[in-house]
Amino acid sequence: MRIRPLPSLVAVAGCFDDDRADLLAEPLDDLIPFGKTVPGRRSAARHTRGRHTGAREAGVKEFADFLGEQPPFDALDADDMARLVAHVEVEYFAAGATVAPEDQPMTHLWVVRTGALEVVDHGRVVDLLEAGDTYGHVWLLSGLPPPVRVRAHEESLCLRIPDPRTFLAHPDRLRYAAVRPAAGPPRFVAGPGRADLPLARLARPIVWCEATDPVRDVARRIGAAGLSCALVYDGTALGIVTDLDFRREVATGRVAVDDPISALATVPALTIDQDATQAAGLLRMVEHGVHHLVVVGQSGAPTGVVRAVDLAQADVRDPLLIRSAIDDATDVDELAEACRLLPTALVELCDNGVAAAHIGAIHAAVVDAVVRRVLRLRHSPALDAIRHSWVLLGSLARREPLPMSDVDTALVWADPPAGDPADAIRAAAWEVLNDLRRCGFALCANGANAHNPLFGRSRSQWIDAAWGWQRDPTQENALLLTAMVADSRPLTDPELGRALTENIRSHTRSGGFLRAVLDEAVGWRPPTGFVRDFVVQHSGEHRGQVDLKAGGLAPIVALARWIAIASGDASGTTVERLRRGTALGLLSTDETDTLAGGFDGIYGLLLHRQVEAIRGGQAPSTYVTPGELDTLTRRHLRETFRAVALVQARVDRGGLHRLPDRER
């Protein structure tokens, strides 16, 4: 623990007042424990002090007890708490003194021990930090200079702590953003967990067999090894046979026990890199509807097999149960019954501590499977007669839906040799969309549906439309449609479906078009114009609430989408697009970290709140009432909104100058 003693520093700063000599002569021990506030000084200057290492043992305990009760430090173990206390410095500030100036990088966290601090934005006090409150983590983590100033509201003692990531053994336990559900204990946006561990840790040994080996022999070897599968190699491709194959084919008599094992094997076997995470393994299983993955090394050679039951308990059981029910559905009614399991699965995934981004990806994979199954069950002469591609839009396309997200779709079909089958194709698309509604999914209320002429076109019509938007971005809906097309992912016939995005590649755009897209992106503003609270709705159904989707997620998603368009690469999640922006020089590392951290935090908060609504039998919403959030979460959101607005302003001023010369 480092103490900055008051006497020496006041003298050094030239502020030694004769009438305060009694104060300056006080022994340092009288400042600890912190029940006592240093009285008296009226200087508005902040004073730098030397270090003192002779704090009493009781004072050290006082630090640990105090910080151990305050987020973000309340989840640290004893060893990390000792490390934290060892780095604490104490500073005194007179009323009006500046604690943290605006527009200067943060190097430390501040924790108010006694007194209060004001957060000042353009001369207005927008927040008041009181005993136990922490300031600066968003700016410390992002590396961006805060656009606000912090000053002492009254005489205050503050704890000054350098970046904890540099000395804590478990910095992921810092609970910077709390998420408090309607009932039960607080939940927090957690750091890396089991889902982020390497998949290879769970790999089981391989039972090998030849393609000509009899079924009975392979079954005997699998049983003797206590495993549930074997790998088959026929000299050209790798296959897999599982216990499920034996039950479905051998037990029913479709395959005899003396037949070659190749009659049972699935070729090629689904593989995954040994460096992949357990979360990536589960997602791959859900996407493909399998229960086994072959783990391969750097050379591509198999090193083991991972089973679904090896990954976890509830966080595997429910998504794979739903996926199996989807694949087994023989009609839309059975498919709808399977889809009713999805909300409960999302609740259980949250309860099991699965990361929000991982839950969103699993959710998207389940919806993918549902749409594909509907397309198989719904046979339409109009669609069957022509090559076509179903395309997902919006958050589902980015694989980051919320529980309440609509299913936004588009349709691309090959240019017909003669005639115009558009009306028949769109009518068939409407039947598919109705089946999705029967399965419990909401269609886009704003019209982004495959039967809408704006979103159901032939390939040449899509390309012509995209050219028109680029030539004249001021025409009606040009920027809106450009944004929606940039957030697209072909679900069937990807080569045809990419017609939606192929014209956003770099050689087809002008600087004026990119400037217009950027203007649209930065038009999504975080609610930073509040005084001691958020900008909220002033009337209507959501009076007194703030929309975290429109005000929190949308500004970040829009900037990431601009990067996708500017880079000519529309793939990936919001965070992946932001990282790509850094690699291309469109964002600095600090800016990307700020936006990515803000997205993860707000998305996690919204997902957990919507899950709590599902648990309580309520309709999920993107609106929150600020008073329902705990103090830590409100403060974290406010700082995040300011940080995002700062990045927006930077990109708005210099975004086009960051592009290669040929793009401007």
Tell me what the structure shows.
The protein is 41% helix and 14% strand. With 664 residues, the protein is an alpha+beta fold. The strands form seven sheets. Strands 1-8-3-6 form a four-stranded antiparallel beta sheet. Strands 2-7-4-5 form a four-stranded antiparallel beta sheet, with no helix packed on it. Helix 21 crosses helix 22 and helix 21 packs across helix 23 (589-615). The chain is globular. The relative contact order is 0.08. Residues 1-56 and 178-192 have low confidence and may be disordered.
Question: What key attributes describe this structure?
Answer:
664 residues; Jelly Rolls; Four Helix Bundle (Hemerythrin (Met), subunit A); 4-stranded antiparallel beta sheet; 24 helices; 41% helix; globular; disordered N terminus; CBS domain; Cyclic nucleotide-binding protein; cNMP-bd_dom; Diverse_CBS-Domain
CATH topology name of the domain at 6-176, in short, is Jelly Rolls
Radius of gyration: 30 Å
Query: What shape does the CA trace take?
Result: globular
Average pLDDT, rounded to a whole number, is 82
Low-confidence stretches: 1-56, 178-192
* Order of strands across the main sheet: 1-8-3-6
**Count the helices. How many?**
24
Class by helix and strand content?
Answer: alpha+beta
CATH arch. level architecture of the domain at 6-176: Sandwich
Please outline the major beta sheet.
4 strands, antiparallel
User: Could you give me the name of the CATH homologous superfamily of the domain at 6-176?
Assistant: Jelly Rolls
Strand content: 5-15%
Q: Helix share of residues?
A: 40-55%
What is the subunit organization of this protein?
single chain
* CATH class descriptor of the domain at 6-176: Mainly Beta
Count of extended strands: 22
Separation, N- and C-terminal Cα atoms = 53 Å
